[in-house]
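Researcher: I'd like a structural prediction for the single chain below. Treat it as a standalone chain; there are no partners to consider.
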Amino acid sequence: MLPQAKIDEIVAEVATAYLTREIVERVMSEPTIDSEGEEAVRITIVIKPDGMEKLKGDSVLDTLVGIHNKLGEAGEERYPLVRYATQAELDVGDSPES
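Model: Treating it as a single chain, here is the predicted structure.
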């Protein structure tokens, strides 16, 4: 299991390679449990406010595959669960009313 900082470093490298810095604001990761009860790592790629419309299917898929491969090569055994969100979407999700 890799430290969170190393996971974030790898994910940021892959995400900016495929999606570019023009789209990616930052990345975050945290431990979680997958649908089968196994340890996993939840990865959030925070997209700049105007970045969602710039996302392309191939680059999103390439990012997902790249994250899975690079984390595995680095020794991470947990499955990466990747999601995309803007900061505004995350802020709404963190509000007490949600």
